[in-house]
Amino acid sequence: xxxxxxxQCLICGGEMKFFLTGKDYLYRxxxxxFKIYKCTICGLERITPMPSSVELKNAYPxxxxxxxxxxxxxxxxxxxxxxxxxxxxxxxxxxxKLVAGAMNIFYYxxxxxxxxEGSRALDIGCGDGYDVQLMRHCNWEAYGFEVGARGxxxxxxxxxxxxxxxxxxxxxxxxxMWHSFExxxxxxxxxxxxxxxxxxxxxxxxxxxxxxxxxxxxxxxYYLGRDIPRHLFGYNDKNIVTLLAKNNFKVIKIRYQxxxxxxASISNLINEKFKxxxxxxxxxxxxxxxxxxxxxxxxxxxxDQMSIVVTKELSE
Length: 316
Ligand SMILES: [Zn+2]
What we know:
Elements: E1 16-22, E2 34-39, E3 45-47, H1 53-58, H2 75-89, H3 93-106, E4 120-124, H4 130-137, E5 141-147, E6 156-159, E7 172-178, H5 187-197, E8 198-209, H6 214-219, E9 233-234, H7 239-246, E10 249-257, H8 261-274, H9 284-299, E11 305-312
Parallel strand pairs: 4-5, 4-7, 5-6, 7-8
Antiparallel strand pairs: 1-2, 2-3, 3-9, 8-11, 10-11
Bound molecules: zinc ion.
């Protein structure tokens, strides 16, 4: 995917102006400073210039979270796995709704509550394939895509870019981008590919950080959702709707959710200021401490993350 650095916002055409400088505070893969530019009209954020392919490759260490989901099953992953399995296995609609409701209060995982036997799903940016395996276990016909050389999982497609993958003409009931869209070098090209992969009545479910959030405003360059230099773009709940609409999608629901944004952003800040190596991101007690505040902020629609359910806009 080719990226054009022309100083214009790719969503609204507005002027991109320098916003902040920051570096990799989360995994400390390099000491290099990266600049983020921000659209003066719609607020789209973008790393400028784009990190090189080598810089991006080096920015994903072996311990990167999505590559270690299967082996590092934390408490949250275990709760997630059980609740999804119970929900999909349950035949009683009332109980199903109850389980789904409880799941959503706790945390929405981006897997639809209702599942029809044999539905086909594609998890883009599937990491080590944890959710692909989970869906297959629940009788989905699930596939994944991940950037990189061929891995060992047979249901996962690997390549340097999504548009290069040959899906053999398959179309999907569900395309899922769970915290992967903000890593895409060319969001518009990515949406064109996704649109072509979705069945007419299919769904796209995505989760992205929200730059119109309390955490983004308060923590600035330390905000977990900016995750320099891995997050190439930063979206908010308005400009992403515009971007999707311009690419023939219709947003049917936005969920405002926070989980570990504040806990991890504080850890980023302290580690940088005091040269410590605290790993609070995976500490459930530390995360739980901030949950009441996170819930309150999510209720006010200023959460550090958002999940979006999208359908195809069909031409008449
Ligand atoms: Zn803009």
